[in-house]
Amino acid sequence: MQFSEWEPLYLQILADFGFDRSEDERSARILSDLLDRDGAVTLSNLREIVSGRDVAVCGNAPSLGAEIRSIGENRVIIAADGATTVLSKNGMIPDLIVTDLDGVIDDIISASKRGSFVVVHAHGDNIPAVRSVVPMFESRRVLGTTQSEPFGNIHNFGGFSDGDRCVFLADTLHAASVALFGFDYDDPHVNDVKRKKLIWAKRLIEEYR
Predict the structure, then answer these.
(1) Whether this model's pTM surpasses 0.90
(2) What are the sequence ranges of the domains in the chain?
């Protein structure tokens, strides 16, 4: 998704949640500075992994554990943040992890050391985590994203929460197909903010990709 297509949706999201665009942009600049090192991963590196292949996007709904056996062996696995922990406990290391750094950081770092590429998302609410966690990764295994306007080494593929950003990333990287595991848009056990995010995730995946 091009930013010109995404921005009207982003403005709706800002209004719906009361988010501050300037804080999203500040977080993105901080992430950019942290990733401005030689040897950083590029979009082309990730496209080499995904292009033309079947992809399993794993969300962190409670159903993921039961669905893991259905993923199969030949799919590229893209994990949404906390799904990394579930996958790792089941002996599966994601090829890519999409995270805004509110999952189990030790598990994401461990997966990165074992070969996962990490797509770190900067937004106004995770500036402390961006500052403290991103330096723990090797820059050659990290790509940065924003929900505001992309620039330089910071990308925007579309999507709002970790799960739907995984789907838009897979599309951008020219996946042959995308299958969803561990997605539950109607999870009754989440709080009001998470419920609203799930509504947006469903809308974005079903209507705008």
Answers:
(1) yes
(2) 3-207
